[in-house]
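Quick one: structure tokens for this chain, please?
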Amino acid sequence: MKTGGTSLRKMLIEELGEKAVYPNDKELEKLPNGWYPESEFILQHASELRPHQILVGHHPYSLYEKLKSKYKAIAFLREPVSRTLSIMSHRKRLSPHYAHFTFDELLEDNMFVEKQILNYQTKVLSMDIGAVNDPIATGKPELQRALDNLRELSFIGINEQFPASCRLFDKKFNTRLSKRIRYDNRDPQQQEQPESVINKIRPLVSLDIQLYEEAKRLFFEAEGG
């Protein structure tokens, strides 16, 4: 979540056609709140999904491990403080409950922090099947699992290197995504936050920072290879 997934999905639909991507825009419109199906639903109904080339969504790595179809797993990661600021801005924009919260107040909302901020990318790459916004504890074992899974991905994209990531994707999968660059769901009202807010965020994403550094290393290694 908040790593460029909507842009990537729309670019893939433009490149390969609506039938190639599940769920496509029309299917998302029919789902509650336009949200992706959760991983448990995908796993339970995998044999019933319409034919497709690409399955997209907010899924843990463990879904890939459990699906019987021969998918290749890819993921985009984002600098953790930037991703956190983006999800807070996104939540303020879309949720009437949070609309008037300051960023400091959002960081005091323990449930929100545990669900959508606290080492979020480490959680998604290490957790068992479940909703990626469930509050799940992370520590050194989860970081190691996330790092191991990161290294098993068929492709790693970096949000801050989005055009370069698309060029690398093209090279690996013989597509033309780099000719279709777009930026959806950007918040035009997101503003720089004071250092005091940044300093509150960093300890909440300390494992994500380590994960991101390894993702960057692997990305630049692949780019230079």
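The mean pLDDT is 94.
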